[in-house]
Write a structure and sequence with these properties.
- The structure is a single chain.
- This protein has 452 residues and is mostly helical.
- Helices cover 80% and strands 0% of the residues.
């Protein structure tokens, strides 16, 4: 106790902490209603990006006459760059100002995205629109998954993230399906983007209405972790630079997780942008291309509930590492195959690998970070992960320009395989029930402590 603190102040702190423990019970069952609301929000967020994946790429050639591979996939790079940076900003701000306000701000950024695409008369304007979509996806999806982790606490965290990601990618499928129907019936513009505006309206209503602020649940969990001997009223959050250094270098498990997320987006970029080009050049019909890509997304989306629950039973390292190698193998089978049956096998393997990897990487960050600065830690991870969307299209597109699309897919397979080897060597189990070592910041608190 400092000289300026009074016993009454500390009594008040203890009373507030006790109230937090009583008033904010953690758990999936205890918070099923709020968890369900945020799951609906995640589905709506996914629908927004689902419209983009189906309705936007054809605009490049059909509306603007763009034929360059690099220029066509540049909208993904623009989206990924902004999304990765804003993930970091959103996570940091949410630890200080809460989740709900940032979620609402994220919905607002989807409005100019839709309007710009509707009225664009050049492809560069569509790329600008994707900057707004990147902000939208970063703020909304980061807050939605963080809110679920807040509500559930340390028990069943893998299942919670699995449900979140599954809802999001089911939403991607629904949005893409509806966009396909609208494009077929009414053309590429404006109806798909009117659907986006309708989804945004519903999302705002749910967020403004029944959805609650979940930051107090994170504060309650942090309080529960405090020493039984020492009561702490407030733990200052690390400076952003120190948190970035911790996640990216000091904690080697988090380094492995961040690079895995980064390379994972190279693989997804290949499916979203390069697989269709590769297959169409080989004479595969557009309907078959859509079926193959749809199977990949469906296996990935629905599989994440099971793989998230699996990680709660067997730990995080096995599904993440295994899934990474499965993705690498799926890419190799796809580009090396000459039959449709092997292409189907490849996309099923890739979807399964994504389901094993994607939600559980997020879960490892939730396992490791203190709840007080968990939003910022998730932001750093998502900065790295979605940075793969910014860099992947440029690197793979460059390879495709000089040596062909098939070479770009081979390069992606090798990079994902190397990522798996890094996970094998550096990543240590983070599941609180199974880990043998506490997170690195507990042994080295100076790595995350604010400078005095």
């Amino acid at each position: 106790m400092s000289l300026t603190d009074s016993p009454l102040d500390h009594h008040d702190d203890r009373s507030q902490l006790k109230g937090r423990r009583v008033g904010h019970k953690l758990g999936l069952r205890e918070n099923w209603w709020q968890f369900s609301l945020f799951t609906v929000i995640t589905l709506l967020i996914g629908m927004t990006i689902g419209v983009e994946r189906v309705a936007l790429p054809p605009l490049a050639q059909n509306a603007f006459g763009v034929t360059s591979v690099l220029y066509t996939v540049s909208f993904i790079a623009a989206f990924g760059f902004v999304k990765s940076v804003m993930n970091l900003v959103a996570g940091r701000l949410s630890d200080r100002r809460g989740r709900k306000g940032i979620l609402l701000a994220g919905w607002a950024f989807a409005i100019p995205y839709a309007l710009i695409v509707i009225f664009a008369d050049a492809w560069w304007q569509v790329i600008v629109a994707n900057l707004f979509l990147g902000v939208n996806q970063a703020l909304t999806w980061t807050m939605s998954v963080t809110a679920k982790i807040d509500l559930v606490g340390p028990v069943n965290r893998g299942l919670a993230v699995g449900i979140d990601e599954s809802a999001g990618y089911v939403g991607v499928g629904i949005g893409g399906f509806l966009a396909g129907l609208l494009v077929t019936s009414y053309g590429l513009r404006p109806t798909p983007y009117l659907l986006v505006l309708g989804v945004v309206a519903v999302g705002v209503l749910v967020t403004l209405g029944p959805a609650k602020e979940t930051l107090p649940f994170a504060q309650s969990e942090s309080t529960g972790r405090a020493s039984a001997v020492q009561v702490r009223s407030e733990q200052p959050t690390p400076k952003l630079t120190r948190l970035g250094a911790y996640m990216s270098w000091h904690d080697r498990s988090m380094l492995a997780v961040c690079q895995a997320g980064f390379i994972n987006k190279f693989a997804d970029t290949l499916v979203a942008a390069f697989f269709p080009i590769y297959l169409l050049h080989r004479g595969v019909s557009l309907a078959q291309v859509g079926l193959l890509v749809g199977i990949y997304a469906t296996v990935w989306g629905f599989g994440q509930v099971a793989t998230g629950a699996l990680a709660d039973r067997v730990g995080r390292k096995l599904p993440i590492t295994l899934g990474t190698f499965v993705i690498s193998g799926g890419l190799a089978i796809f580009v090396g195959a000459n039959s449709q049956s092997l292409w189907f096998l490849a996309v099923i393997l890739m979807g399964s690998g994504m389901a094993l990897v994607y939600p559980n990487l997020i879960t490892t960050v939730g396992d490791t970070a203190d709840p007080i600065w968990r939003g910022g830690a998730l932001g750093v991870y998502r900065l790295w992960r979605d940075g793969g969307y910014a860099i992947g299209p440029l690197v793979l597109g460059g390879v495709a320009v000089f040596t062909g699309v098939s070479s770009a897919i081979w390069v992606g397979s090798v990079l994902v395989g190397i990522s798996g080897l890094i996970l094998l060597s550096l990543f240590k189990e983070t599941d609180p029930k199974r880990r043998k070592h506490e997170p690195a910041w507990r042994s080295h608190p100076e790595w995350v402590a604010p400078r005095g």
